[in-house]
Amino acid sequence: MADVVCCLFAAAGFDRAAVGILGAGRRLADSSGGKLVALVLGPANEAVASGASAVADRVLVADQAALAEYEPETYLSALVALAKPISPAAVLLGSDSYSQELTPRLAHRLGGSAAGDAVAIANDAGTLRVTRGVYGGKAVAVLALKRAPAVVWMRARAMDPADAAGRSAGSVEKAALADLPASRVKLLNRHVEAKSGVRLEDARLIVSGGRGLGGPEPFKQLQELADAMGAQMAASRAACDAGWVPPSWQVGQTGKKVAPELYMAIAISGASQHIMGIADSKVICAINRDPDAPIFKHCRFGLVEDYQKVIGPLRQAISQSR
Amino acid sequence: MNIVVCIKQILDPELPARDFRIDAVRKEAERGSANLVPNIFCENALETALQFREAHGGKITALTCGPEAAEEVLRKALALKADEAALVVSDVPGVPDPMFVARALAAAIRKLGPVDLVLTGREAGDWGAGQTGGLLAEELAVPSISFVENVEPASAGALNVKRQTDSGWEAFEATLPLVATITNHEKNVPRIPKTRDVMQSFRKPITKWTLAELDLDPSQANSYYEVAELSIPRKETQCEFVAGETLEDKVAGFASRVTEIMRSL
Predict the structure, then answer these.
(1) How many contacts does A have with B, using Cβ atoms within 8 A?
(2) Is residue B119 within 8 Å of B5, Cβ to Cβ?
(3) What pairs with residue B226 in β-bridges?
(4) Residue in A98, A199, A314 closest to B255 by CB
(5) Residues of A in contact with B147 (CB under 8 A)
(6) Which residue among A98, A114, A304 places its CB closest to the CB of B131?
(7) Cβ within 8 Å, pair B186-A117
(8) Residue B232 is nearest to which of A139, A205, A301, comparing CB atoms?
């Protein structure tokens, strides 16, 4: 009973998060001599099923009509129905908001223990230990999950892919779930913000603005800079709370966890809660007029200036060099 | 409409990192001189409830689980005109796990009588587990929706719920009773209590239950998970401040560092 289950949502595609969950799941299963089973929920997606089968021993695809759109009650019932017969030691999910929503409830229904925002997991003689940031990033805790299965949502994009060399592809089976209970929650409307380019979580370049911008207007200047760089836009919680930009731009402890090659923080002081969302960035740089701003402690390079004086010239300089 | 708002008392998350210390024995943050405050997302939840009551009526009960000192967050809720307040007095050593807290809250909610809507914060600013709402829903055997920014009445016995997703938002119709975990939104920024209401809050009664009165066994406070290790990361990067005689020089220096990375992609 050392099997590991990875939960994937077909609608998200076979993205970096799926690769990371499967990688973490594969290593955990191998360390405990168990099998890796991938559950794929949602509308049929060949890329996800075949991508998962390259790493997992077994892929269970549940693509029935009732699972066409995500809705928490039905998806929870489906995951329970699929995972329970496997009696897994661990169930792993990604860091998307659906996974975060489902994780504790799935643990409760499976009689296990949950933890979230894991940056590392380890099998300690049958007990899963989860490493995660706490106290707004000021401390790091290792939690020992005492019940099985351990149900964990992870910073999947920061997890290494599985070493699939020499593996034969796992089986792909269709799982028809009968008797999913009628949901007490009905999806009325789903709004997906029009945003060009890749998802923020997958972005390689990010330009981010904070409280120091003072209002929504300067974000237009930042957008021009981001466009010149081919970067995605993000913001600190303060800027989102103020209503300057949509909540989906929020990066930090309670926003998105990003891992770009370059994260440019403009007029962001750098509270530990914000750093929690950007710690996986390869390079962080900042523009801030306060040389003592905490953000600089996390930067590879920085510019101490008023952003208003430099954004325009910076955009020109970057455009010319392209 | 009976609304319960669960509020957690936490160490002030604004405490600067340089003042942050760890109690190695209890494996939690040292209190030191830091304030204890209501978790911000719980305050967003209370604000959501207050606005709902203003527009549609209802009764709001503020509920917490913690030491006697946690009464403070209930006083603040009463000052903001919560109708009633209840405290589950938990004096377990160390940090109780979210399952224990969810069971304590569920037991208290059952004592409060029929409840239509339970609001929690999406997560707390201290341990940030983000589990209490979901586990509470399971304990109460009701549906739950996370990252909610607003609730409005729908047909009888149902609510329209708007919640944030990674890429935008979703609207649900949910049958009651329901647990919703509330996230921050520009419309649920907590209001400030009036001085007169703060004074009056100290005259209002608070219902208190011990763990024993709710049939809760304190020895189970970490049977779900326990903190094995707690440490302060010491990872600081040496920042190279771009220098230059003129602003143009500085911008050029910064730009060249940026374009260098862009070219490497």
Answers:
(1) 261
(2) yes
(3) A144
(4) A314
(5) 97, 101
(6) A114
(7) no
(8) A139
Q: Is the peptide bond before A149 cis (omega within 30 degrees of 0)?
A: yes
- Cβ(B9)–Cβ(B125) below 8 Å: no
Cα torsion B198, B128, A247, A220 to 10°: value is 100
Those residues with Cβ within 8 angstroms of residue B192's Cβ, 6 or more apart along the chain or in another chain: none
Q: Which position has the token pair 């999806």?
A: A187
Q: ipTM more than 0.90?
A: yes
Whole-angstrom distance, CA of residue A300 vs CA of residue A297: 9
Tell me if A261 sits within 8 A of A205, measured CB to CB.
yes
Does A97 sit within 8 Å of B166, measured CB to CB?
yes
Q: Which two tokens stand for residue A113?
A: 């223990």
Query: What is the reported pLDDT for B199?
Result: 95
What is the distance between the alpha carbons of residues B17 and B27, in angstroms, rounded to a whole number? 17
Q: Is B225 in the A-facing interface, judged by CB distances under 8 Å?
A: yes
Q: Do B134 and A291 touch (CB under 8 A)?
A: no
Q: Closest residue of A to B185, CA-based?
A: A241
List average pLDDT for each run of 10 residues in chain A, which is 322 residues long: 92 94 96 95 95 97 95 97 97 97 98 97 94 95 98 93 88 92 94 81 95 96 96 95 92 91 97 92 96 94 96 95 78
Those residues of chain B that have pLDDT short of 50 are none
Of the candidates B129, B74, B73, B65, the residue with the CA atom closest to the CA atom of residue B92: B65
Q: What is the pLDDT of residue B232?
A: 94
Strand partners, B209: B88
Q: Does B173 touch chain A (CB under 8 A)?
A: yes
> Global pTM?
0.92
Smallest Cβ–Cβ distance between A301 and the set B147, B240, B262 belongs to B240
